[in-house]
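Same chain as my last thread, 130 residues:
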Amino acid sequence: MPITLTVSTSSLNLMAADCKQIIANHHMQSISFASGGDPDTAEYVAYVAKDPVNQRACHILECPEGLAQDVISTIGQAFELRFKQYLRNPPKLVTPHDRMAGFDGSAWDEEEEEPPDHQYYNDFPGKEPP
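reply #2:
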């Protein structure tokens, strides 16, 4: 099935070329690995992505002759650009003081209960550990 592959710094999108139906849309932060262009399998690109339904899955794309290296290079460039964007604008660190701002209650129930007395299989009074 011919597909259209769109790679950006935010996502990798697979769309059926004939009917324009989206097959997959993986955000870049959900892609943990990408590989392609090996001499034995020069026409294949593979990447591992996480999605809410299938957890992690390996997606394998068969590319027209000579395009696998271009595809994997493009994915690599997208990761590199995304990382450079991150370095230019890193997220603000949340300090414990910031985390507690506006918080006026207790995170725990008001009445503190004694923890239950657990019976452990190796809890023998007077027995010395090995």
